[in-house]
């Protein structure tokens, strides 16, 4: 079903709810789903609203037409070039806040990359937990070709591909094909264009087999533990987290279902 949200320019975002799965489609195909200050504001508002949706288990992000997102709208970037450094900082922080709102969502997020993902579009992809791309997809950190840098998106991109790979792609601005994107860690899976819907549906189905609370707790665990020193504090914290989940009603149901050779009560399809 189509759900209405309070957006400044609702025609630029198509949001569909379907039994715990929300699909958000960037809907500016005539400019390859490039974003400006209005779309950034609307995406931020939408992601903040989604953060409070306990009924949503998966959010899929994609683009209308032949592109995922070309990054910044040229008219928006032209306006930014005429601003002061402080104005540009404020503008960049609004973009950063939107990216963080996507990255911080408690439910699983999937980038459904149907075409080109350039600059900030590349960043949106790496903010998601999982990325599935068509063979037609391509990626580039093209900012350097315009005399700027991939500043706001850099933490998410580096986390996805690592420092060594980032050294090349940050400085060359080269196009990255889908197969290479999978090799270096931008995307998890690549498929033919006409199989993209099915591949994402399959990924969603795999996630829905898992306990909803366990999935959210696992995502929170990743954010808290990744990169931390393996010391006594970390070991005790991870032990406490699994103890809490084992003792929860969902943990007890999952174990009982396994032993009784039946589906747990969170699987409805």
Protein model, in words:
Helix 8 (212-225) packs antiparallel against helix 9. This protein is of the alpha/beta class and 269 residues long. The protein has helices at residues 37-51, 74-81, 85-103, 120-127, 154-172, 178-184, 196-208, 212-225, 232-247, 249-259, and strands at residues 13-18, 21-26, 58-63, 67-69, 108-113, 116-118, 130-134, 138-140, 176-177, 189-191. The protein folds into two domains: 10-208, 2-enoyl-CoA Hydratase, Chain A, domain 1; 212-259. The mean pLDDT is 94. The longest helix has 19 residues, at 85-103. 48% of the residues lie in helices and 16% in strands. The strands form two sheets. The protein has a six-stranded mixed beta sheet with strand order 1-2-3-5-7-10, sandwiched between helices.
């Amino acid at each position: 079903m189509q759900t209405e949200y309070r957006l400044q320019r609702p025609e630029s975002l198509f949001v569909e709810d379907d039994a715990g799965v929300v699909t958000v489609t960037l809907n500016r195909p005539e400019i390859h789903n490039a974003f400006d200050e209005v779309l950034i504001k609307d995406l931020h508002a939408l992601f903040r609203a989604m953060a409070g949706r306990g009924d949503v288990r998966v959010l899929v992000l994609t683009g209308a037409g032949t592109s995922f997102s070309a990054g910044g709208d040229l008219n928006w970037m032209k306006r930014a070039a005429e601003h002061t450094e402080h104005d540009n900082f404020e503008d960049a922080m609004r973009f950063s806040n939107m990216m963080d709102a996507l990255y911080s969502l408690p439910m699983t997020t999937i980038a459904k990359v149907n075409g080109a993902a350039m600059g900030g579009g590349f960043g949106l992809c790496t903010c998601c937990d999982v990325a599935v791309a068509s063979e037609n997809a391509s990626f580039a950190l093209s900012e350097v070709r315009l005399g700027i840098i991939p500043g706001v998106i850099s933490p998410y991109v580096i986390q996805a591909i690592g420092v060594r790979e980032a050294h090349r792609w940050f400085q060359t601005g080269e196009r990255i094909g889908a197969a290479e994107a999978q090799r270096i860690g931008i995307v998890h899976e690549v498929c033919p264009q006409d199989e993209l819907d099915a591949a994402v549906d399959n990924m969603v189905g795999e996630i829905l087999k898992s306990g909803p609370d366990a999935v959210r707790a696992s995502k929170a665990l990743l954010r808290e533990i990744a990169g931390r020193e393996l010391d006594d504090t970390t070991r005790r914290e991870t032990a406490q987290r699994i103890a809490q989940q084992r003792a929860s009603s969902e943990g007890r149901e999952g174990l009982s279902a396994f032993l009784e050779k039946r589906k747990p009560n969170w699987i409805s399809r």
